[in-house]
Amino acid sequence: MSFDITRNYAEEIRLLVEQKNDPEIKSLLQDLHPADIAEILAALELETAMYIYLLLDPEMASDVLVEIPEEERNKLLNALAPDVIARQYIEYMDSDDAADILGSLDEEVKLSVLNEIEDMEVAGDIVDLLEYDEDTAGGIMAKELVTVNENWTVATCLKEISRQAEDVDDIYYVYVVDDSNKLKGILSFKKLLLNNTNTRISNLYNPDVISVGTDTPQEEVARMMEKYDLVAIPVLDEIGRLKGRITFDDVIDVMREEAERDYQMVSGIVGDVVPGDKVWTLTRARFPWLLIGLTGGILGARVIGANEEALRVVPAMAFFIPLIAAMAGNVGVQSSSIVVQSIASGVRDFESTGRKLLKEFAVALIIGLAFAGLIFGYNFFFSDSIHLTWAVSISLLIVILFASVFGTVIPLVLNRLKIDPALATGPFITTMNDILGLTIYLLISKFFFDIL
Amino acid sequence: MSFDITRNYAEEIRLLVEQKNDPEIKSLLQDLHPADIAEILAALELETAMYIYLLLDPEMASDVLVEIPEEERNKLLNALAPDVIARQYIEYMDSDDAADILGSLDEEVKLSVLNEIEDMEVAGDIVDLLEYDEDTAGGIMAKELVTVNENWTVATCLKEISRQAEDVDDIYYVYVVDDSNKLKGILSFKKLLLNNTNTRISNLYNPDVISVGTDTPQEEVARMMEKYDLVAIPVLDEIGRLKGRITFDDVIDVMREEAERDYQMVSGIVGDVVPGDKVWTLTRARFPWLLIGLTGGILGARVIGANEEALRVVPAMAFFIPLIAAMAGNVGVQSSSIVVQSIASGVRDFESTGRKLLKEFAVALIIGLAFAGLIFGYNFFFSDSIHLTWAVSISLLIVILFASVFGTVIPLVLNRLKIDPALATGPFITTMNDILGLTIYLLISKFFFDIL
Asked: Is A271 among the domain residues?
């Protein structure tokens, strides 16, 4: 049922495809989970992947399709006829997966596939879902859910649920609505099972239900479901009518994406890349932040260049340039990432921004004094210039104070401006603090060496 | 039912506590979710938090307790009598939450609470769970689950489920076992509802069930549940007997922790800190990596110091020190974080390590040539030394090549050695590459200026 990690399926299957040994391929795939087959297909060349894909029965094929990463999936779909996509794969999927897949296709292909869908209800659901912004609750919700009317009895409910359940893979909760489809509350299976069959639903359901609107940002949905441990959350329109539901697996994807984006930002990568990607994709993902680094380096060169004469007199001033730059960069990244991570976790702390800054300043002061002290000690014993000893320590203290205040303020400001605060982390803050650190250091050094 | 984010509950409640206005406090808390109450309590001083906590009814109090962060929770528990903790809170919890909470207490307190638990079955479950390593499936599973025997009929099942369901909050799946409690398969509610009441379970259940062992690492459990979209996963002992189950909410916590740990590592922070933490906690979390940075800076100072005479002759050599160091650091962090993230995502790519390295080298060569070219262009126009122009460009190329190969190899090696590969990211790789970059740059510069 699931992957044996020590086996190289990709290699094995490549061989079987060469031999056109269909029965063997089918029996191999039969024991695998759709997610595993998707991983194998994504690792194969398009032609081999396609050969295998066409051997799958429609239900399995549609489950696999959902799991293949977008890039490889679209290559596969572009090689298939619209009517095959529509009738063999899309019609077997949950509406949210179908909308995701169609939404990622070119407009033209999307329309021709939509027009080939025979079940008008399925097509309608997909078109409805495609209306929503893909980063909102509406964009990730599915239309498949089980609803019961508040006026029914438990017996009617159970009968109705059996009927609706055929279309819904996992039920989790039963949603209770009124005659105009407004959400009134939720009902667990447990409640249904533990109560008499002629009890009315209106006496059973729980009206305290946490819901989101169709336009709630997906990150907010994820945070709510995580915080309240919800396996599914209902999505309502502006007047409280039940439009769909979002399940935990969609939200895990959102969380994973968000965490990866923040991680990429702090490590200076643009977009979601893995070592398996093409050389060109990998290069492109790394270029932008390195360009910022280069620009920073050139500015740094100019700052030092402006002090060429001072350096000729006291070359020792150059010794601690990397130390100052590195400490400024590290402190800045630490400060900004603490802020970014706390924003991302969504935990409210009731602490004012002013108090946060004051605290950050206190932390920076302790760290600054400690490291200024350490480097003073080192230079006191190992350097023969007392001027340099003082200059390095005092610069380090000031640089650490500046770097941490900037590191804290910038993401807070970005967040206030509704810009992703993670932009402030990584190479950006490092580069800015590098230059600032250099300027402060050279100025203070010249002061101590009396060559200002 | 859930938090109104624009209200400052902490302030409001502090006031009500001062006035000892219990009815008002109770009515305010009544409308809130346990997770929200926990957030408010965590933000209050211990005394105020305790006052409010004691106003909650036992069921709500135990739900809230589970949600309070460990540090604040233990403060609260240390102020309560063991018999109150045991009988008013622990006995109302799921076994996994109870074990978590007890496991985080001091040995002495833990034992006295355990001995005050009156229900021996509850106490036994908790003691069993405490045996497992807290980072494994056994350490995060709960004992509460619904099992049915493969030989029963649907009717017997439904009756038995109603009985067992009282102890289990969310059922999700019904586990089918044989007479010796070995897991045979799973059954969905849907299957139970859609079938005739005298059908035997053995004809209905799905034997293709994905499970984990009690000693499976929690990160592996999380990756499996994420990949296969599982809302719950059964946990088996070595001989296949069903010992417990892990639900999606536990796994979301594991994922969140793992992502945060990697993020902290790459940004040079030790441990899970938020801006709301104490100044001392924040300082301690930032000290270790900064010490590495300082050591690196001192080594850098020595490398440059060894070239003091060269610098006196050509101070311009110092101009590009920050650029080389910054580029080396950024490239190294990029490379290592791509590897770390791909390991963390758990997606298998069937690509050999050799091929990955070759690709990384190709990427580094493109990036290196591009940036060497850019800086050559800059220096060609803006610098008056052709020696410096060549030295900077060639050093940059070599440094980028080294930095990316190291950045890729080190996390791969750590992972092979079963050490967390994320250790290689952040300040560690930056510092190492800084020094390496400096050494290469100064050597090449001296060669071009003919002062080697």
From this structure: no
